Amino acid sequence: MFGLAGMAQRYNANASAEILLSTVPDFTSYDGGGTLDGTTVSGVTADLSAKFGNFSLFGALVWQQFDLGGQAEFQIGPTVEDLVGSFNPWGFVLQGGYALDESIELFARYDYMEADFGSILAPPFGESFPLGMMKTSVLTIGANCFVNDNVKLTVDWGINLESPMIGVNEKSLQGIGWGYTNARNQWLLRGQIQLLF
After folding, report:
1. Which of 3, 15, 106, 107 has the fewest beta carbons under 10 Å from its own?
2. Cβ atoms 106, 71 nearer than 8 A
3. Domain residue spans in the chain?
4. d(CA 93, CA 83)
């Protein structure tokens, strides 16, 4: 199975700058105010899944382009500055599984995401300076246990091979176990039961 999709949107004055800039590393002078009014976003994603006997494979790729508009408020001054620049976050996921029998499936997954903020200019001190690079690299191994047709148990262990989880929107991490931190080698152990009614 193959899938392909695209998107495009333009932010208006209701879009807070915080939804983007609070995730940017080294943007310590940003105080949470401002708007992304005029920012345009476009993107494309593609995925492929296949099954060969007891083996299953899945892969997906996502790419976006942000052209910044709007203004941000900074702690020094306080000052309000125009947002200038563009960046292209992208990422992919690869997953493979093997069914030992009808009730047990082992799987391994690798997720990678990168955003280079180097072309964004943020001038809180009256002069522009480039921001940094954000990367997330997560390796996960786990197992699915199909107890019956209505109950599935999943247990997995994952580790972020890059040091920061900064750069991922904090709200998107809620409920999936990862913490919003720049601690090195963050890992987690999860269990989940799914019930079908």
Report:
1. 3
2. no
3. 2-195
4. 31
Residue 30: pLDDT band with limits 50, 70, 90: low
One-letter amino acid of 71: Q
Kindly indicate the confidence band of residue 76, based on its pLDDT and cuts at 50, 70 and 90.
low
Using one digit for the tens of pLDDT, what is the confidence trace for 111-124? 998 887 766 765 55
What distances in angstroms separate CA 26 from CA 57, 63, 123, 136, one per listed residue?
37, 23, 13, 16
Tokens of 2: 């193959």
Could you give the CA distance from residue 21 to residue 36 in angstroms, rounded to a whole number? 10
Cα–Cα distance measured from residue 180 to residue 98, given in angstroms and rounded to the nearest whole number: 32
Q: At residue 47, what is the residue type?
A: D
d(CA 55, CA 38): 46
